[in-house]
Amino acid sequence: MSLATEVISSTSSKVITICGVPNSGKTTIFNAITGLNQRVANYPGVTVEKVSGRFSIATSKSDAFTIIDIPGTYSLTPFSPDERIATAALCGLIEGERLSDAIICVVDATNLERGLCFVFQVMQIGRPVVIALNMIDLAKRLGIEIDTEKLSRELGGVPVIPVVGTRGHGLAQLKEAVAESTNADSPPSGGFYDESVEHLLSRLAEAKHNGHKHRAELLKIIFDVEDGFKSNYDSDTHHTLDGVIQHGRKQLIEQHGSLSAAGTATLSRRAAEISEKVATKVKQTQTTLSDKLDKYLLHPVLGPIILFSVMILMFQSIFSWAEPMMSIVDNLFSSLAGLVESVMTSGPLQSLLTDGIIGGVGSVVIFLPQIVILFLFISILEDTGYLSRAAFMVDKMFHWCGLSGKSFIPLLSSYACAIPGIMATRTIEDRKLRLITIMVAPLMTCSARLPVYAIMIAAFIPYHIVLGIFNLQGLVLTALYLLGLIVAIFVSYILKKVMKSEQSSFMMEMPSYKLPTLRSVTVRVVNRSKSFLKRAGTIIAAITIIIWALSYYPRSEEISAQFAEQYSALASEYQNGLSPEEYQSRFEELSNEKAGANLSNSYFGRVGRAIEPVFLPLGWDWKITLAALASFPAREVVIATLGTTYNLGSGVDEQSSSLVSKMRDAKWDHGSKLGLSVFSPAVALSIMVFFALCCQCGATLVTIKQETGKLRYPVFVFVYMTALAYLGALLTYQFFSGVGL
Amino acid sequence: MTQLDKLGRGQSATIIGFAKDGPVTRRLMELGLVAGKKVIYMRKAPLRDPIQIKVGDSCITLRKAEASLVLVELTTTAVLN
Q1: Residues of A in contact with B43 (CB under 8 A)
Q2: What is this model's ipTM?
Q3: Would the CB atoms of A74 and B23 count as touching at under 8 Å?
Q4: Residues A150-156: contacts with CB within 8 Å, 24+ apart?
Q5: Residue A119's pLDDT band (boundaries 50, 70, 90)?
Q6: Which of A156, A395, A546, A665 has the lowest CB atom count within 10 Å?
Q7: Contact A288 B48 (CB under 8 A)
Q8: What pLDDT score does A168 carry?
């Protein structure tokens, strides 16, 4: 892996950029060319993904190429901030990123017109362009014949290679053509723009004294009014250029009605003309298969029903199909821990390995089955073209609170686990929209909250029938699910206002329906799983080690000595005729007591006691506070920690009746509530509300860091969620204890 | 003359221009919506926004607010079935 990374980052090999309009199959071709040899990074300082890979061609083994996949975009005049990065990268305008040696432009053969409009613009960059005419098989089936030679001639000699990305057809020829093109000089720019625009371009070229700007950059200066004109020329030149631009724009508007009419509309028309010339439709069909399918799948009544069924299936499979695999992972890690425990003598190193590393990494790797299944679904939904239809149907529900239809799948997935949900936001192109979705995703009620809810409800919420049909326990659980949802809506509404994310649009082409291929689905699932595991093995392991150390150290000599005495007393009782069963259970009891004493003496225990006053208004004693603190790596850890503090060992789970009875019996041993029960329904509700809203999940925070590329986002998420959790728990406790619960 | 979002299901119209210039207009042009082209209003989403239209061979979705920028002339009222 590190070797491949080194080769990719070396500047000696030639750099190829692959671009195309959304849904042209660009990523499929990229995946097919590079296989699993990919590296994901972000452009410096921004959240826009930069995926790079490598390929070489059969005829010359020495020549390795670096290939960069940029996000799909409809034009080089950017619409969103994300597109601004993608187009700047393509045009070589990002500091530290060099202009590529050749550009592969992927064009969907079934929609030549749309692709060509983009090709025209890419040709203005002045680098050799090779067109990968993708989905040529699908075009044939639809009765579209494309004369590739004629198309190449119309484009001034740009090579046009017919390919089928999903099956890997034509890729060898594509790679050859790309290798060939990198040696070409003075690539054609076509002459697609109107004379008036060409005139302005030459005026601009005259007006600047030094520095080379390619045509694409000059065109962006003319047409991208929103970005303004920035240059690093001296002020005189800048002033002259600015004058030429202002005057030129005015003339274009006079002549064509608007700037867009002068630029984009001209290209759009030329694209239609050329497409007409080179593509012949054998069959003239009015309604395509996609139209027929849409009639049912987007039907006002049937559509939502089908969508709902698909979502139920997906949701069910994340929960139930993943279950057996998750217990396999769980068993694997616990038997590994058991093995280490049996071969090593007890001590800090053994505890670090078993409780710290194996336990910690295991608690994250356990989500792998869910991630695999979710991405299997998402890849299939996206490849078939259904994902954009699903977004279309639900968009309105999300639009008003700052989200969009594209946030639907990520947020729904977060009900299973926020980690795959956050990873699924990569299908959202708009940066602000993606950030808002990422920041509210951890509020969805994930499966790790369920154990916490289950034990608290079982212990403190009575089984009580309300209004004849509702069970109070079920109502509380439903209320907790709703709480997460309502707070998420509220937070995204606020974030939308704060981040001024008003520009989110829903203008896009709906891809036609296609059958997904095993190959493209596999590559995506494997890549996602790999990046998840890499994270679990590194940063998450580091976090769990820190948490382990805080709850293990310092070890008190006193406690050890005290328990050593009790152990030897027990041993002598055993020799004096205590039954083996009795001995065994007394021994375990003693070990659990020792673990409890050690935990309460640890740094975490001390911190827990020290900050008890902070959590007192929530109704919590130091043991609950400690358990909540120690659950930072993962929410469900709170139960194991409660088990340890109540001297039951860390093996307890949400079905543990001994933990329930211990909690019911727990009394305050100090302070103003001395002798009163610690737990009450109000305290249980306060704990549950806290866990509904807090972000005690290290893996989620690490995922946010990785997906956004910046530390401030996970920090913000942790701070705002913890603040909401505290506030929510405070209000809950004060209200319910006030009414006597 | 009317706005694209005011059409009914299955109606087709010819684009005559845009209410104003800007990034949204530019994007719509890139998606093939240029003066003189024929559009067919396919359907609304179940919650009545966004809408789906057809320009040439491609299906395009956009919100009503965006569609309201597109000025069209109604050509037929043929209802799709």
Answers
A1: 294, 298, 300
A2: 0.93
A3: no
A4: A150/A277, A150/A278, A151/A274, A151/A278, A154/A274, A154/A277, A154/A278, A155/A119, A155/A123, A155/A131, A155/A188, A155/A190, A155/A274, A156/A123, A156/A188, A156/A189, A156/A190, A156/A191
A5: very high
A6: A665
A7: no
A8: 86
